[in-house]
């Protein structure tokens, strides 16, 4: 098992890694952009759901919304999306940077999400569905996006959970009404797809 990242909390365990039994590049430089092929295994109450997703390796900063939609299809509670996406993206960065993957057109990756406290997690998941279907993402209104306040980062730097890049001290960031701070371009792109804060599920409108 290579390039493994994990996070644990009271309800979910998420593990992301690159499988060992795959074909490496043949040493030739490809003119095509590399793709990351992610296989998902989501275990709920002993029943494992399986799915896959293919993403371009040169567009990591745009993955969050796509991954969040995929997790919603598996009924993973929305308030866990930020942590799961961070685990997936951090592992992907590590895998992509490895020399053995430098000439691969398709780079495989496995993501396992397991419920460790089934009763509570299933209860949370139920709030995301209507008649057994994942809750659709609703874009925020243009007026509510324009009303977001900008702030100067003064004390300590942090990480924007959408792009997973540092928010540097002295830089300008955008603050949601729930007080969570993001890069301006990142949060606007997110809110154009979903009106819910990626971290706390605060609904903008």
From TrEMBL:
Where do the RING-type domain residues begin and end?
160-201
Q: Which Pfam families match?
A: zf-RING_2
User: Which InterPro entries does this chain map to?
Assistant: Znf_RING, Znf_RING/FYVE/PHD
Query: Which UniProt key words apply to this protein?
Result: Metal-binding, Zinc, Zinc-finger
State the EC number(s).
2.3.2.27
- Any keyword Transcription? no
What SUPFAM superfamilies does this protein map onto? RING/U-box
- PROSITE patterns found in the cross-reference section: ZF_RING_2 (PS50089)
Its UniProt entry gives the catalysed reaction(s) as: S-ubiquitinyl-[E2 ubiquitin-conjugating enzyme]-L-cysteine + [acceptor protein]-L-lysine = [E2 ubiquitin-conjugating enzyme]-L-cysteine + N(6)-ubiquitinyl-[acceptor protein]-L-lysine
Record has Zinc-finger as a keyword: yes
Recorded hits in PANTHER family, A to Z, give:
E3 UBIQUITIN-PROTEIN LIGASE PRAJA, RING-H2 FINGER PROTEIN ATL21B
Name by which UniProt lists this protein: RING-type E3 ubiquitin transferase
Q: What is the lineage of its organism?
A: Eukaryota, Viridiplantae, Streptophyta, Embryophyta, Tracheophyta
């Amino acid at each position: 098992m290579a390039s493994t990242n994990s996070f644990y909390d009271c309800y979910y365990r998420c593990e992301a890694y690159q499988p060992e039994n795959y074909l490496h590049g043949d040493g030739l430089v490809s003119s095509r952009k590399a793709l990351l092929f992610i296989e998902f295994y989501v275990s709920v109450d002993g029943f494992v759901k399986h799915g896959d997703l293919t993403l371009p390796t040169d567009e990591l900063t745009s993955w969050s919304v796509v991954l969040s939609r995929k997790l919603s299809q598996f009924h993973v509670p929305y308030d866990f999306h930020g942590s799961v996406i961070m685990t997936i993206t951090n592992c992907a960065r590590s895998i992509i940077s490895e020399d053995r993957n430098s000439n691969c057109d398709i780079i495989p990756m496995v993501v396992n999400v397991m419920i460790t406290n089934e009763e509570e997690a299933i209860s949370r998941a139920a709030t995301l569905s209507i008649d057994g279907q994942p809750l659709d993402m609703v874009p925020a209104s243009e007026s509510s996006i324009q009303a977001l306040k900008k702030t100067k980062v003064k004390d300590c730097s942090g990480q924007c959970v959408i792009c997973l890049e540092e928010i540097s001290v002295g830089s300008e960031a955008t603050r949601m009404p729930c007080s969570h701070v993001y890069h301006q371009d990142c949060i606007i792109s997110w809110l154009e797809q979903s009106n819910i804060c990626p971290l706390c599920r605060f609904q903008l409108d």
